[in-house]
Design goal:
The chain is of the alpha/beta class. The chain contains six helices and nine strands; from the N terminus they run αβββαβαβββαβαβα. It has one domain: Aldolase class I (TIM Barrel). Bound molecules: iron/sulfur cluster. The site of iron/sulfur cluster (SF4) has 12 residues, from loops. Iron/sulfur cluster (SF4) binds next to loops.
Length: 209
């Protein structure tokens, strides 16, 4: 546990970083809010439709100290930091999450849930992938379940995961950007199953990264 370590010690912990930038959260319940995105490198899930394949190999990305990442996040003025990837839970997020919180940011994460939870997290978005299923230990902490839907089979997958989430978790279905034909399927399903809602990649409609 790193909670009792000094800020200087935590700032020295480094993570493979693909990119970090201040933008608008485009997806899910916090869609439309400004947020500082921290995209950690490394992913062992390997979805064929992944739109950040360049994040998979962490060895091609620099190791960046927590202190540098947190300083940039704090200076951006953001109130929310979103740790994403890649699969961010391949890394122990304690140092990064503690320091982000110390600087007054809420810490959100977007994960497939396929590796153990770590860090101090204010909002957990589980985006489960059939290619590497979420660990059972992750489900009790899920705030938002967001399932990418391309075809009917994905709706069964969504329900399978929803059963394991807390009752109060927000349930969202999201069309895959390159497969807009699934929108009709999702709209029809949500109308018949109103416990679900729809998440769109609104940042892509706005053409912001
Ligand atoms: Fe891409 Fe995310 Fe799937 Fe990894 S889990 S392959 S980063 S979509």
């Amino acid at each position: 546990m790193l909670e009792n370590q000094s800020s200087a010690f935590l700032d020295d912990v480094s993570y493979p970083l693909m990119e970090d930038f201040y933008t608008i959260q485009g997806e899910g319940m916090h869609s439309g809010k400004p947020a500082y995105f921290i995209r950690l490198a490394g992913c062992d899930v390997q979805c064929w439709w992944c739109d950040v394949k360049e994040s998979w190999d962490e060895s091609i990305h620099p190791k960046v100290k927590t202190g540098d990442i947190v300083q940039r996040a704090a200076q951006s003025g953001a109130k929310i930091a979103v740790i994403t990837g890649g699969e961010p839970l391949l890394h122990n997020l304690e140092a990064l999450s503690i320091r982000l919180r110390e600087e007054g940011l809420k810490v959100h994460i977007e994960t497939s849930g396929s590796s153990p939870l770590s860090g101090h997290l204010d909002w957990i978005t589980l985006s489960p992938k059939r290619f590497k299923k979420p660990l059972d230990e992750v489900f009790p902490y899920v705030d938002e379940l967001k399932v990418v839907v391309l075809k009917n089979k994905d709706l069964e997958w969504a329900e399978e995961n929803a059963k394991k989430c807390p009752d109060e978790a927000t349930l969202l279905l999201q069309p895959e950007w390159e497969t807009p034909s699934s929108i009709g399927l999702i709209v029809d399903y949500v109308k018949r199953h109103p416990e679900w809602g729809i998440s769109l990649q609104t940042h892509k409609f706005m053409n912001v990264r």
